[in-house]
Amino acid sequence: MKKLLKNRLFLGLLVFAGILVLLITFSRKKTETQGLYHTVSKADLIISIVEGGTIEAVNEVVVKNTIDGESQIIYLIPEGSYVKEGDLLVEFDKGQAESSLQEAQVKFETHQAEVIKATNDLIITRSTVDSELSAAKLAVQFAEMDRQKFQDLDRQHRLRSSELAIDTEAEALKLAQQRYEWSEKLAEKGFETKSQVDRDRLEVSKSSKAVETAQSTFEMLKEYDLKKEETKFLSDLKEAQAKLERTRKEGESKIAQQEAAVNSAKSTLRITEEQLERFREQLNSTKLYAPQNGLVIYAKSDRSWDNEPEIAEGSKIRNRRDVIKIPDTSKLKVQVKIHESTISQIQKGQRAYVVLDSQPDRRFLGKVTKVAILPDSNGRWGDNKKVYTTEIEITDPMEGVKPGVSARAEIIIEELKNVFSVPIQAVTTQNGKQVCYLKGDDQPTEVEVGLFNTKYIEIRSGLHQGDKVSLDPPLDDKLNLSGETTGLKLNEEPAN
Q1: Long-range contacts: 122-127, Cβ < 8 Å, 24+?
Q2: Nearest CA to 488 among 445, 453, 441, 437?
Q3: How buried is 313 (Cβ within 10 angstroms: 0-12 exposed, 13-18 middle, 19+ buried)?
Q4: Is-contact 286 76, C-beta < 8 A?
Q5: Adjacent-strand bridge partners of 365
Q6: CB-CB neighbours of 296 under 10 Å
Q7: Residues near 403 by Cβ (< 8 Å), separated by ≥ 6?
Q8: What are phi and psi of 132, to 5 degrees?
Q9: Minimal CA–CA distance to 191: which of 203, 199, 183?
Q10: Which of 19, 92, 414, 437 meets the CB 3.0–4.6 Å disulfide criterion with 473?
Q11: What is the rounded CA–CA span in Å between residue 15 and residue 23?
């Protein structure tokens, strides 16, 4: 029991000693901190924004796979190689491209023959239509001549012939009557036989009927036959004219159809020729050559959700995918993301300094060459605020530096000459006002602040040369620690 009490007492002493040591240490640190001051003096103050980024080439050529579908890489130049314009970079399997080219060549030759056939058929059709039109025109001409001949000659000729036939038959009737009368007189005297008289009487009857027939024929010819024939000739002429028009229309239709066949064949040939040319390009695209001198860098997707295979021999690469990037290392730039709260202070042409993570003791001069108008849709800070892509071209030579190196860029917003400034932690807020604590004074000194950077803030009034300000001022209990030291943005005038 006594032993247990001794152990507990020992442990209690150890705990008390530990607490005492912690209190002494904390007290010393607080005393040391409270004893830190900054002497106010005039100096130049650079207002800048510092952001990290990656070195990139200003001029960079991307070599893409332009073969349809997926293509397997059978040769790939090692990454990091320096190439000259025209050097072979990538070679794809060309088996499919060769097969497609052969098929396209066969189709092209077939359609060439179809164009020749359609063109010859058009020539034949035009010749046939010309012949048919000539025949139809002759038919119209002959029909017109027949009608004109009938009107000018045949009508009168046939009428006269019919009238002549009447006259002839009338004369024959008159002779037959005279002969009959003479026969009767001779028969009364006994000089002619009765049978001869009967024959002469019969001739009179025949001649009389012949006269009637000739007169009837004349009337039919005049009133019916000639009018019918005139109507027929006119109908034949109209039919020949109509046939000529039909032949012309049919000929135009045949020629138009054949011309359409020729145009269709030519269009098909042109499409096939374009396909043939495309397959030739596809075959040529199985080898990718360097478009410029530069460094070989394998392309990688910026989207983490893409399941693209790596650029390597044996990999199958989809159409339009970036394969190799060849940056021109003679001009480099750094791309950074600027928070929306300060992007309004960034302008093209502003001076900047770039420091490589691998060479922290050296600065390279540059200038802002591009400021995005719209925010980066893929770049948001933790507070859901947007960032804007900004590019800085490095004007100092950077021999031996390759794209992809991490760097930090300091963009110079403004350079203040011979102004008072204090470390940012020396300014605090009391009752909504910016104040500093001077050495030996427990009461705060109100100050008017101006621009600031990541370390110092401009003091426009309230402090004097040689004042010592505390670097550990007390904070106002009502202070809203929103992350901005003074509540002022760059170039913003403080309230009076």
Answers
A1: 122/255, 122/258, 122/259, 122/261, 122/262, 125/254, 125/255, 125/258, 126/255, 126/258
A2: 453
A3: exposed
A4: no
A5: 353
A6: 21
A7: 54, 55, 56, 57, 60, 295, 297, 327, 329, 332
A8: -65, -40
A9: 183
A10: 437
A11: 12
* DSSP-derived secondary structure letter, 380: B
User: Measured on CA atoms in the order 84, 86, 87, 91, is the torsion positive or negative?
Assistant: positive
The Cα 74–Cα 92 span in angstroms is 5
**Dihedral angle computed from the Cα positions of residues 369, 373, 378 and 380, in that order, rounded to the nearest 10 degrees:** 100
What's residue 306's pLDDT?
A: 62
CA-to-CA distance for 89 and 294, rounded, in angstroms?
12
Place of tokens 């002839």: 168
Strand partners, 324: 63, 298
Dump pLDDT digits (tens) for 181-195: 898 888 888 888 888
- Rounded to two decimals, the pTM is 0.51
Within 10 angstroms of residue 438's Cβ, the number of other Cβ atoms is 18
What is the phi/psi pair of residue 482, to 5°? Answer: -95, 0
Structure tokens at 4: 């247990």
Contact 315, 298 (CB under 8 A): no
Structure tokens at 274: 């374009």
| Torsion from C-alpha of 427, 431, 432, 435, nearest 10 degrees | -20
pLDDT at residue 197, as a whole number: 85
Are 448 and 460 in contact by the 8 Å Cβ rule? The answer is: yes
